[in-house]
Design goal:
By secondary structure, the protein is mainly beta. About 10% of the residues lie in helices and about 35% in strands. The protein contains 10 helices and 58 strands. Strands 47, 48, 49, 50, 51, 52, 53, 54, 55, 56, 57 and 58 form a 12-stranded antiparallel sheet that branches. Strand 42 and strand 43 form a beta hairpin. Helix 3 runs parallel beside helix 4 and helix 5 packs parallel to helix 7. The longest helix has 15 residues. The site of 1-methylethyl 1-thio-beta-D-galactopyranoside has 13 residues, from loops.
């Protein structure tokens, strides 16, 4: 054991023999200074980030002695290497990342941890700057995962636990002008690991900044800014509590000068802070020896009549859960990535963040203050793995862990208490319930009565101020909103604001059903929104043997216990590219709703902001005929307070003959911190000219039998035996056949409603096609080629009768498919559609219909009617675990063409969904990573009548009944023609 290991804490109730090392002690760390607010000042500080010497030992006992001493040999020859700080050692070639969701990756034997406990020794020699003042100085660690023993110049400063929480140690008396030796021994596993079982990668090390900060005698030790807003009077109040001699406050903009700490100033006419209008006032708190810049936001959070209000207004969380993640750096997130997150959130109408499930890098909250996001700031606490044991031994109810729980909450609240963006505290996540949690809540209520306390695990709402749930179905949220009996028939559930701390699990393709959640948040005052799970896929950037990049997930590092791709469940991909889910979110939760009708002659514009008017937006309109702009202009929209709807007459429009839509958009009128002027915030469409009646089709051409075994029908050739289309206008094709299968999504496989398992059991992935007849007929609609088939899985008795009625009219080849279920179907169906293949050269797609992005039955609000172009490669959505993707809805027509203009045109009567890919559905289904998908020779084209919805069953409710698809009688009509050539 290392010499500094302590055996001071006797094991309680543990059957394992032996003393408890400091890292196994359930108590908080030792030696740290009392927690205080995160702030910078004009006192000298020295960043100790950079390159440190590092050595990883397989166990504490194997760690070298004397690292903390002068002259220790930390050379490469002695087994040391360079490691950046901040960083995780597993992402720099030492050990490997590992992913589990709920399971502890070690035996549950609290507070013991495995003796195979990877231990990283960090060593930094540093000099002080010339002008560094003598006297007190603190050494600040913003995050060490999971336990660090800190020694400076041979002397222990202390031990820190609580990976995502800061610790400060007094370092002043030990500092030397030159040749300081800072040694930090970090253990991957500690007693703290039992409290840090969040659903994420296990990644260790000093992953947040390390700073030495001079503490001038007579300086400011801590500050607590109280800045409230009285919405009735329109005035604010400012009082700054401070630790330090004679602290005073100036806020020049408000005429506040020399306000003594502890005294309150009334501030008439102040502008309040909100996520939508994040007004901050610059100030300074100072003593004779130190000046601390302040950014003050005035706002008051209150719960009145069961409704959460800020500055008197009901707010709705249109939020996301944000883990800190970067595909190369893990939780050591570079500042520009944090800024990118916030810009992306703001640009997609996200107004709130739950810092799941730990306080973020402190700078992130500065950004939230500045850009404007409501924050639910969550403590670094999760003991989920005890659920496997029926919660037996859960630390939440165990006295031995009481101080550790409270310590974590204190460090959260003290660090972040001055952020106007933080409107709720959260005790942690998935730690069941217990006295230690109740104590955290009681302490928080006492310390900061200005913010309500959240914790989803307090299902009885005994010690929290909001009723919170995760993944409640629409039906249940509606019941809660109506105040009807809830799960525990608990009156508290009818009195408190209700929020979904997690909903709409964004794993893979999905979640569907966002629109219906929004409707509930609008219908019920107490249903105040929620936080999508989650912001980002935690995929780790890797390359395969051929150098093709992909993102890794659980199991990709050889873990013997892991939860696969459950860590890939974000609204942005690991590289922060927005996924279709985020675009859907942006549309569903747009802060302005634009509707209207041509018949009524008006547009309705509803302001759905919580606190601001429409002044920051510019409105304009565009009229498009078949997706081509024919007229456009600005639109005058009168001011509307939050919640109000204004009516605007439709602009004077031409009358195009073809299908025409008026699109009205609201864009940012001026540059904002998060988007340039012209960024689209909201849009709506009104149908002006419906699709014209179809011109009478030319009379049909009769099919002709050609030798050998081929049939000609107008521009097409068919196989006379199989009845399958083989050529169109001279282009080889594999003609359309009924296809019911899709590569299951994570939601299809979801545990709550495993549709995919039923589809597979029903053999839908390997349907066989029996050709019953190939007939040349001349029915009422003229001559036709009729191919009668039965499509059915092997070994089972049910199937689908599919008749293909082909007719040729000039250059157009028309297909009417008639479907009829045969026998009793045991399951729903993924798709009702056709699959065909066309030459790979036809890689440019253009269509008039829903777009530009992918859409599905229950996730299609973001699809607008227009004319769109994309190549087949960009029609794909690169879900980290490949699955069904790329569907476009309601195409009126589609062309796929080659650069020389040859190609294929498909028209719907009236419309169809489509997807086009360079691999088959079976290949998509089999792929484990994006790099497994290798383009083939042809383009596989799905032309669908309908597809099963997405839902959220990967973690939560399945597809709503109206979006489920059943085998049913159906008719589906398309027309094909060849282009050019
Ligand atoms: C819920 C967790 O709180 C969250 O961290 C994440 O794991 C999510 O599930 C799934 O991705 S807990 C679950 C039991 C609902």
């Amino acid at each position: 054991m290392p010499t500094s290991a302590s055996a001071s804490h006797a094991p309680h109730g543990s059957h394992a023999p032996g003393p408890v090392a400091y890292f196994e002690d359930p108590a908080p760390g030792r030696g740290a200074l009392p927690p205080r607010a995160a702030f910078t000042s004009d006192a000298p500080s020295l960043s100790l980030c950079g390159t440190w010497c590092f050595r990883l030992s397989p166990a504490p006992g194997a760690a070298p002695d004397g690292v903390e001493l002068d002259g220790f040999d930390a050379s490469d020859a002695a087994g040391w290497s360079d490691l950046p700080v901040p960083a995780h050692w597993q992402l720099h070639g030492h050990g490997a990342p590992a992913y589990t969701n709920v399971d502890y990756p070690f035996p549950v034997d609290p507070p013991r941890v495995p003796s195979d406990n990877p231990t990283g020794d960090y060593r930094l020699e540093f000099d002080l700057p010339e002008d560094w003042p003598r006297g007190p100085a603190v050494l600040r660690f913003d995050g060490i995962d999971s336990c660090g023993l800190v020694r400076l110049n041979g002397t222990e400063l202390g031990v820190t636990k609580g990976s995502r929480l800061p610790s400060e140690f007094e370092a002043g008396p030990l500092l030397r002008a030159r040749g300081n030796v800072l040694a930090v021994r970090v253990h991957q596993w500690s007693a703290g690991s039992y409290l840090e079982d969040q659903d994420m990668w296990w990644l260790s090390g000093i992953f947040r900044p390390v700073t030495l900060i001079a503490r001038p005698p007579g300086g400011v030790r801590d500050l607590h800014v109280h800045a409230d807003f009285d919405h009735l009077a329109g005035s604010g109040g400012l009082m700054v509590a401070a630790e330090g001699p004679g602290v005073r406050i100036d806020v020049p903009e408000l005429g506040i000068a020399g306000l003594p700490a502890g005294e309150r100033a009334e501030v008439p006419g102040v502008a309040p802070w909100s996520a939508e209008s994040p007004r901050l006032y610059e100030g300074v708190a100072y003593t004779d020896t130190e000046r601390v810049p302040l950014r003050i936001g005035f706002r008051t959070v209150a719960i009145e009549d069961g409704v959460l209000r800020v500055n008197g207004r009901r707010i709705v969380f249109r939020g996301v859960n944000r883990h800190e993640f970067h595909p190369e750096h893990g939780r050591a997130v570079p500042r520009e990535s944090a800024v990118a997150d916030i810009e992306l959130m703001k640009r997609h109408n996200v107004n709130a963040v739950r810092t799941s499930h730990y306080p973020p890098d402190p700078e992130f909250l500065d950004l939230c203050d500045r850009y404007g996001l409501w924050v639910l700031d969550e403590c670094d606490l999760e003991t989920h793995g005890f659920e496997r044991l029926g919660w037996a031994g859960n630390p939440s109810g165990d006295e031995r862990w009481s101080d550790a729980f409270l310590d974590r909450m204190r460090r959260t609240v003290e660090r972040d208490k001055n952020h106007p963006s933080v409107v709720l505290w959260s005790l942690g996540n998935e730690s069941h319930t217990g006295a230690n949690l109740a104590r955290m809540a009681a302490w928080t209520h006492e310390r900061d009565p200005s913010r309500p306390v959240h914790y989803e695990g307090d299902r009885a709402c005994d010690y929290v101020d909001v009723y919170s749930r995760m993944y409640a179905s629409h039906e249940e949220v509606d019941a809660i909103g109506r105040g009807s009996a809830t799960e525990l028939d608990n009156p508290r559930h009818r009195e408190l604001p209700f929020i979904l701390c997690e909903f709409a699990h964004a794993m893979g393709n999905g979640a569907g059903g966002l629109l219906e959640y929004r409707e509930l948040f609008e219908r019920h005052q107490r249903c105040q929104g929620g936080f999508v799970w989650e912001w980002m896929d935690h995929g780790i950037a890797r390359g395969d043997a051929a150098g093709r990049p992909y993102f890794a997930y659980g199991g990709d590092f050889g873990e013997d216990l892991h939860d696969g791709n459950f860590v890939i469940d974000g609204a942005v991909f690991p590289d922060r590219t927005p996924s279709p889910a985020l675009r859907e979110f942006a549309k569903v939760f747009e802060p302005v709703r634009i509707t209207g009708s041509a018949a009524g002659g008006t547009l309705e514009v509803t302001n759905l902001h919580d606190t601001v008017g429409l002044a920051s937006l510019a409105f304009s309109w565009t009229l498009q005929e078949e997706g081509v702009t024919v007229a456009a202009g600005p639109l005058d929209v009168p001011q509307a307070p939050p919640g109000a709807t204004v009516r605007v007459p439709l602009p004077v429009l031409p009358s195009p003959a073809g299908e025409s839509w008026l699109t009205v958009t609201a864009v940012t009128a001026a540059d904002t911190a998060w988007a340039p002027a012209g960024h689209e915030v909201a849009w709506g469409q009104v149908l002006i000219t419906p699709p014209p009646a179809r011109a009478a089709t030319e009379p049909g051409t009769a099919p002709a039998l050609l030798a050998p075994g081929r049939l000609r029908l107008g521009p097409a050739l068919f196989d006379a035996v199989t009845g399958r289309l083989t050529e169109l206008g001279g282009h080889p094709v594999q003609g359309p056949r009924l296809d019911l299968w899709r590569a299951p999504t994570d939601n299809d496989r979801g545990s709550d409603a495993p549709e995919a398992a039923r589809w597979r059991a029903a053999g839908l992935h390997r349907a066989r096609h029996r050709v019953a007849a190939v007939e040349r007929t001349s029915g009422a609609d003229g001559p036709a080629l009729v191919v009668r088939t039965r499509v059915a899985p092997p070994s089972l008795g049910f199937g689908m009768l599919a008749d293909y009625h082909w007719s040729a009219h000039g250059d157009r080849l028309r297909l009417r498919v008639e479907l009829e279920p045969d026998g009793t179907w045991p399951c729903t169906v993924p798709r009702l559609g056709l699959r065909m293949a066309v030459p790979g050269r036809f890689g440019a797609a253009e269509w008039f219909g829903g777009g530009p992005g992918e859409a599905y039955a229950d996730s299609r609000q973001a699809a607008r009617v227009g004319r769109f172009a994309a190549d087949v490669d960009t029609l794909q959505t690169p879900y980290v675990l490949p699955q069904e993707n790329g569907n476009r809805v309601d195409a009126r027509w589609l062309t796929l063409s080659a650069p020389d203009g040859t190609g294929l045109r498909v028209e719907g009567e009236p419309g169809f969904d489509f997807a086009a890919r360079r691999w088959t559905t079976e290949e998509l289904d089999a792929a484990r990573h994006t790099a497994d998908l290798v383009p083939g020779e042809v383009i596989h084209l799905n032309l669908d009548l309908a597809q099963f919805g997405l839902g959220s069953a990967a973690c939560g409710p399945g597809v709503l009944p109206r979006y489920r698809l059943h085998a049913r009688r159906a008719t589906f009509t398309l027309a094909f023609s060849a282009l050019g050539g």
